Amino acid sequence: MNNKLPKWHVVYTMPKQEKQLISKLTEIKVNAFLPLIKTVNQWHDRKKTIEAPLFPSYVFVYIENRMDMYKISALKGVVSFVKFGNELATLSQSIIDNIKLTITNFSHIEITAFHFQPGQQLIIKDGPLSGFECELITYNGNEKALVRMDILNRNLLIDIDLKSMSKKR
């Protein structure tokens, strides 16, 4: 493993262990990020709004040294660090900032692993995501902005006003 530290890394967790892991990471003073979105769960007798992970089974951690890696690996709920071959997957600070910006400014975000054909390349020109690149696609009969998250093989779908986008040059 030839990764230089410090960097953001991705931890794959056991199912439904993301929030517990964030608590443990806070206790050992590791900077971690779990993007949460509000969703409505429907049971047969009621509905309840809950905060669910945007990327189920994934937590982002900022590792400053090798010791942090070993501490994190030993925590209950951690399956492994996400790797590509022998290299740990890393994220830039700008990707983390963009995820934070997206979940803060958009109430309806969908995540999907569906493979979309390339859509029209656009740049958001107005609002909090100004300068953000996206693709315009049709999903379930609605036009949506698609943001590809190649590192997790996931796509974010957001509702955004078409007037706030322009064609990529």
Description of the molecule:
Helix content is 18%, strand content 43%. With 169 residues, the protein is an alpha+beta fold. It has 2 domains: 7-91, NusG, N-terminal domain (Alpha-Beta Plaits), CATH 3.30.70.940; 106-167, SH3 type barrels (Roll), CATH 2.30.30. A 6-stranded antiparallel sheet has the order 10-14-13-12-11-15, with no helix packed on it. Strand 12 and strand 13 form a beta hairpin. The chain is globular and about 50 Å long. The N and C termini lie far apart (38 Å).
**Which strand order spans the largest sheet, edge to edge or round the barrel?**
10-14-13-12-11-15
Structural class: alpha+beta
Low-confidence stretches: none
Q: Output the CATH class name of the largest domain.
A: Alpha Beta
CATH topology of the largest domain: Alpha-Beta Plaits
What is the strand content?
35-45%
Helix content, binned percent = 10-25%
CATH architecture title of the largest domain? 2-Layer Sandwich
- Based on DSSP secondary structure assignment, what is the total number of beta strands? 15
Q: How can the largest sheet be summarized?
A: 6 strands, antiparallel
- The coarse silhouette is globular
The secondary-structure element order is EHEEEEHEEEEHEEEEEE
Q: Mean pLDDT across all residues, rounded?
A: 85
Report the radius of gyration as a whole number of Å: 17 Å
Overall tally of structural domains: 2
Instruction: Count helical runs.
Output: 3
Per CATH, the superfamily of the largest domain is NusG, N-terminal domain
